[in-house]
Amino acid sequence: MTEKLQIYRCNVCGNVVEVLSESYGELVCCNEAMELIKEKNDDENLNEKHVPVITKNIDGYNVAVGAVLHPMTNEHHICFVQAVSQDKKYVKTKFLSLDDEPEMNLKAKCTSLWARALCNIHGLFKGEYNEF
Which fold, 39-130? Predict the structure, then answer.
């Protein structure tokens, strides 16, 4: 069974899809089952430049990919950054180009949220923010 907001990748062509509606069945691309990309936040060697760092500001939040911003080169870059409220009702995704800084600002009044970013080499990383 798929779950809302899970991300899958085709290991043949590289397609990446996000689940919008939970259901039964298997996601298939290029005649093969798609791979579920699991979120990471526990790899000390990669965390500094990959785990989203969420800070509150006057208008809402800033999400930066890494305590030290992730590089944005053709060979190694962040594909997107996404912020999600804990109840999964509010989702904002920013797709990045190589000219972009790997961060985004969002106006939100929630007190807790999480964010994730997809690195083209190292995978999907998750960071959390909770006021309480």
Answer: Immunoglobulin-like (2.60.40)
